[in-house]
Structures are given as structure tokens and as C-alpha cells.
Amino acid sequence: MKVALTGNPNSGKTSLFNAITGKIEHVGNWAGVTIEKKEGEIKRSLSGRDTFITSVDLPGAYSMSPFTSEENITKDYIKNENPDVIINVVDASNLSRSLFFTTQLLELGIPVVVALNKSDLNKKKQTVINVVELSQKLGCPVVETVSSGNNNGMEKLISSVVAVKYKKQSSPFDSSGVNIADKREVEASDRKRFELVKNIVSEVEHRQVRSSRQTRQDAVDRVLAHKWFGVLIFAVVMWGVFSISQTYLGPLVADTFVGWIDSFRGWVDGLIGKGVSPVLSSILLDGIIGGVGAVVGFLPLIMVLFFLLALLEDCGYMARVAVVMDMFFKRVGLSGKSIIPMIIGTGCAIPGVMATRTIKNERQRRTTAMLTPFMPCGAKLPVIALFAGVFFNDSAWVGTSMYFVGIALIIVGALLVVRITGEKNAKSYFIMELPEYKFPSIKRAVMEMLSRAEAFVIKAGTVILLCNTVVQIMQTFNWKLQIVAQGAEETSILASIASPVAILLIPLGFGVWQLVAAAITGFIAKENVVGTLAVVYGITNFIDTEELALVEGATDVASVMGLSSVAALAYLMFNLFTPPCFAAIGAMNAELDNKKWLWGGIAFQLGMGYFVAFFTYQIGTLITTGALGNGLLPGLIAICAMVGYVIYLMRVRKSIPSIKIGLSG
Amino acid sequence: MGDVLLILIISAIVASAIAKIVIEKRKGNKCIGCPHSQTSGCGCGCIHSKLRTNKI
Questions:
Q1: I want to staple A364 with a disulfide (CB 3.0 to 4.6 A). Which of A95, A186, A335, A372 is the partner?
Q2: From CA A139, how far away is CA A502, in angstroms rounded?
């Protein structure tokens, strides 16, 4: 038996899908999070031991006449895949808007069960819906559900689904005679449908709070979603999040955690003993355990951070951030919808880039896909945490400012794309239904945090482990496959590959092969920057500073790396704002669907990363030491070449004559 | 003997990592270990092709 879950965006379909299947699919407190269909088996405890029901979670849709690509997926699935039953998830707190789609679904003849979701919000607002009457008027079962938190009403919902299977579905509205090719006829039919919905709602719903009245939420929104206060509040909130996760609670847990990793390493060291080859011992201890351990050491910090971000999203705050940022993004030629991929991109750039497909305008979609990786994703957080901890005394401003630098680069990038493509800025409207403020679900935040932690550990145990092993081997041997002698590390395979690139990075303040090697491995996965630094500098953890006694002649990690704070900040920015990992570039390739845009995007990201790192290092060095940094002139030449090329692209576009075609009758 | 054992252990660890990557790729995961980065259940990119068809 196959059941399709469908309904308006942000009605809680994925939450309900998770509740009935036991899966942990990503949910968001705003519209447009689900862009693909997802399948799962409904829990046997709900469906009965002998009943196998497959549930399909579909992207949100307002109507059966698709307007966006994800609405197309929903329409195609329902019309072509013939589900046995449709669960229509209806936002109980917004009945009048939701029932338009419901009446369209009822016309298809497939049995429908209406899940009146978010019923708890109605109770708070003292809004009462007469479920029995609504069920009679629609001609299908209506079940009150709460899919977040307690998962109320799930048994009743699934038993209703089983009961209606193979039954004939009646409809309160009939549009079969409407000629869909005739726009006027369709509009007239839609007006009649709206009238029907209005009548049904007026008879079954009894509201205490009228929607026209200003509520406390509206007053809070006026501050949180204010054009300027909103930005300030966002900065303070992010600073708070980074303070808790990277200055206070995170390191507290991490200290204990890295102690365990060190103990494990010591135990393995003791087990191996002295009688084995030092090369093999080094691959296992320094490459595999040391490299992976250095990355995994940041796990507690990342977990705390994602827990806090999940709380912010669930309480409804992130939706307000989307509104604030939208005001800026729209002005620079991005779509109103561009903010959604960018917020999703703070978790991982890949789903962020994939989410751009909801944007209809091709130039805006491609620009968003190209710029989304500038938002620091989860993989970049260990790199931020490392540099904030080692060079800036765990200061929370480092992480916070990286988000704002990312936003600034997006704005600059969008402006440049508009200039280069020469396309006029199409006005786009972003209509986002702001979710009600609510106390965030701790359970949901914990689940999200555990899901991220699991992902982090899997990545550390696979991609990062392999990379560190290869890096360890490459720095142990030279091209003649001889073991590199101590003090002659620059003859290693790794050093010989990284050194030529290092010359180009002298103007940025970090032209040493070890740092370049780490930045290169970062293109495989950004966490690799931490792992590779651990391997090449022989530091097994970056959190417990007592461990540094092992590093001869150094008093702290900063002196092991030989970087000033300014150069460290430049290096951090270079890693964050140059192209993302290869997997994200693959996602960009799929979404951009154009090689020119892809290579242009990669070159732009590389240029921006270089540009930001160069000015950070040079200006920072001038401020802190009174003199300019190394390699100023070659760096300036490189920057001028880049800027010149961008200006050339703009001029080329301007010089192309526009062709006007006149039509005369 | 100790060296052989160590080579076997390292090989086993590396082989397990590669096997996990291959399994995840077959599941359609674009980024190993990144949550929510799956393209589709079948891993064939059919959603993409479907979208393109719709665009046309």
C-alpha cells in the first residue's frame, strides 16, 4: 500500500513523515525545505503487524497547477504514480488557505485523509474547528494531529488511512467541465472554489483571535525582522551561539573528549611497542589516529553549535533572519527565494545548492547556486574553531564575523554577476509565511544534533581517514620512495607538490608548504584542513594545550605553525571563501547546468578567497606592525589582473549591441 | 611479525573506509557523511532528469 503525504508548504509534512516512519529527515520551520520526494515505511506499531505501508513525503504545493519545480514533482507523483491513499496535511492554524488544495485533491478520486496538523497552536489561540462537520463537508476523514513533540493522533490517522483504502472518494467541488486552456474559465472556477472554501471555514472554524488584530508576535516581529535592528540582533544572537559553543560549553566537553582520544592513542602506542617499523607505526598513530582524532576532537563544539542552531530554527527565529536578509539580497539582483538555499547552506553547501532549483529565474538561480557556498557550512566549523581557539583565545567574534563576511561576499558577488551578465534586475517578491513563535522542541534539537554528529564521525572515519593516511605517506617518502630524513621534510612528495603553490600564497601571509597542503586537501572535505595540519605538524589535538609539551621548542600551536594572528585570519578566510569541497562543486555543476557558469563560479570563488585573504593580511599587518606584509607587489599585480578581467567582462557585455525587433501588423 | 600485523590492521582500516564510501555513493550520497545531501533514493539522479524534462 502506498500513501502520499501532501499539503501546503510548511504545514508539517516532513515532521509528520518522521513521526509515522521513525525517520530523521531534515525539517525546517519555513516553507521550501523539502524539494524532493522521500520514501519510508510506516511504523508497524501504527499500521499493524501484517500491513506494509510505504509513505511518500512530497514537496509542499499550494495547488495542482504547478508554479514551481517542486510543485511539479508533487503534481506528477499524485497524477502518475497512483497512490492508494493521500494524506493531505493541513495547517490547522491556517485552514482557509489550506483547503483550496484539499478540494483539488478530493476531485482526483483517490481516497483522501485530512491530517489537521498543528492542532496544538489552535488550542493556544482558542480557535476551535469542528472536525466532524469539516469531515462531513469535505467527504473524507479528518484527524487532528500534532506532528512535532508528542506526535498526537498518529494511530488514528493511520487507522483512517487503512480504513479508506479502495473506497470511492467524493468531492464537494467539481471542475471537470472547466476548459484548462481557457484562462478566464479557470480563474472563474478558482473563484468559485475559494468561495466554497470560505463558506466551509466560516461554518466549521470559530476564532477568538481575529487575524486583523495586532498580536504580541507582530510586535516582536517589528523588532526582530526590522531592516537594521534585525541585522544587529542577528549578530548578537550568532555571537551568543559561538560564545556558548566555542568559548564556554563546547571546550568544556571537548577537553574531556580529547583526553579519551589521547588515552586511546597512548594505549595503541603501548600495544604496538618499539619493535615495529617506525614508518608503519607513524601511519597508524600520527596519520590515522592522530589526524582523525584532531578532527573528531572538535565534535563536542560542533554538536553544541548545531543544537543551538536547531533551537533557533525551531522557535521561529531563523525565518525572521530570512526576512531581514531578503531585503538586502533582493536589492543586489538575487531572488527573494535566494535566502532559503543560503540558510540551508550553513548546514551543508550541497543541499543548499540543490535548494536553488526552486528559483524560477535562470540568472538568479545560477547566481544563488554559485554564491551559496560562501556561507560557512558545518564542515568549515572545525577550521573556524581551530583558528579561533589557537590564535584568538576562543573568541566568539571570529565565527560570527565569518558569517557576515560570507554575506558581504554574496552581496558583492551578486552585484558583479548583474553587471557582467548585463541583465536587468527583475523585481522578485518573496512571500514567506512566518511561523508562530514557540518554545523550541529539545527532542528535535537533540535529534538534529545527533544526526550531525553521526555524519561528522562517518566523514572523519572515511574521507578524512583516507586523506590523512595518504598525506602521512606522502610526507614520509620522497619521489624515489625513500624515507625522508628528519629535517629534510621539504624533499617529501607532499612538500614538492605543495611548494610551487606556496609561492603564489606568500602575499597572503602563509606561503609555506604545510599550510598549502592542508588547504589543498580541504577541497576534498573542508575538515581535512584540520586533519592535515595535525599530520604535517605532528599535533594530535588542538584543544588540550598540555599535549603541546610533545612538540619540541614550541610553547603553543601558533608558534608551531609559525603564523601571526593576522596571517592566521587570512588563512582561515582563504579556506572558507575559496571554492567549496569537490562534492559541493559537483552539486554546483548539476544545478548550474552550464560549463561557463561553473568555471566562472569556481574562478570567482578562488578570486574572492584570494582577494579577501590578501587584504586581511596586508592591512592587518600594517595595523599591527606598522609595516606592510611580504609579497605586497606581486599580490597587488595578481589582484589588479583579477579586477581588470572582471572590468573587461563588464565592458564586453556593454559593447554587445542590443537588437531591437519591431513587429508591425 | 609485528610489521605484518600492522600492515594488515592499516589495510583493514583503509579498506573499511573505502567500502563505506562506495556504499554511501551507491545510496546516492553526494557528500559522504553530510546529512541531507542525498539526491534520491535510487542514487540515479532521476530527480534531476525529471526536473530538466519539466523545464523543457
A1: A335
A2: 71
**Whole-angstrom distance, CA of residue A372 vs CA of residue A401:** 17
Count CA atoms within 13 Å of residue A409 on its CB side.
31
CA distance A242 to chain B (A): 21
- pLDDT at residue A553, as a whole number: 44
Q: Is the Cβ–Cβ distance between A138 and A193 less than 8 Å?
A: no
Instruction: Mark yes or no for CB contact A465/B9 under 8 Å.
Output: no
Cβ atoms of residues A177 and A164 within 8 Å? no
Choosing among A463, A467, A592, which should be mutated to test the B contact, i.e. which has the most B CBs within 10 A? A463
Min Cα–Cα distance to chain B from A531, Å:
16
DSSP characters over A441-505: PHHHHHHHHHHHHHHHHHHIIIIIHHHHHHHHHHHHB-TTSPBPPTT-GGGSHHHHHHHHHHHHT
What cell does A102 get? 484539499
Please give the helix or strand (H or E) that residue A647 lies within, else none: helix A632-655
- The C-alpha of B13 sits at a distance from chain A's nearest C-alpha, in angstroms, of 9
Mean per-residue pLDDT, B23-42: 65
Tell me the pTM.
0.76
Any idea of the CA torsion for B18, A381, A541, B12, to the nearest 10 degrees? -10
Residue type, A323: V
Q: Within a 10 A sphere around the Cβ of A485, how many other Cβ atoms? A: 9
Collect all residues of chain B within an 8 Å Cβ-Cβ radius of residue A525.
31
Residues with Cβ within 8 Å of A93's Cβ and at least 6 positions away in sequence, in order, are A118, A121, A122, A125, A127, A436
Indicate the length of chain A as a whole number. 665
Show me where the domains of chain A are located.
2-206, 229-653
Interface probe with A: pick from B3, B25, B34, most Cβ of A within 10 Å? B34
Reported ipTM: the value is: 0.73
**CA gap A58, A287 in Å, rounded:** 44
Q: What angle do CA A476, A481, A483 make, to 5 degrees?
A: 40
Restricting to A residues 445-474, those with a Cβ less than 8 Å away from any Cβ of B are 451-452, 454-463, 465-466, 469
Q: Which three cell numbers stand for residue A650?
A: 563588464
What is Dmax (Cα atoms) for chain B? 64
Annotated domain spans of chain B:
2-55
- From chain A, pick out residues whose CB is under 8 angstroms from the CB of B20: 458, 461-462
Among residues A126, A102, A116, the alpha carbon closest in space to that of A194 is found at A102
Cα–Cα dist A117/A98, whole Å: 11
Render pLDDT for A230-264 as a digit per residue (tens, 0 to 9). Answer: 899 999 998 999 888 888 888 888 888 888 888 89
Q: What angle do CA A111, A112, A116 make, to 5 degrees?
A: 160
Sheet with A38-41, side-by-side order of all strands: A38-41, A54-57, A2-7, A85-91, A112-117, A142-144
What's the per-residue H, E or C state across A341-386?
A: HHHHHCCCHHHHHHHHHHCCCHHHHHHHHHHHHHCCCHHHHHHHHH
pLDDT < 50 stretches in chain A: 547-554, 658-665
> What dotted CATH number matches A2-206?
3.40.50.300
- Any CB–CB contact under 8 A between A647 and chain B? no
Integer angstrom CA distances of residue A642 from A179, A320, A488, A585, A631: 56, 37, 36, 21, 17
DSSP codes, B7-23: HHHHHHHHHHHHHHHHH
Tens-place pLDDT, residues A356-375: 877 878 888 899 999 999 99
Half-sphere exposure of A35 (CA within 13 A, CB side): 25
Contact A280 B35 (CB under 8 A): no
Contact A406, A187 (CB under 8 A): no
Name the 3-class secondary structure at A597.
helix
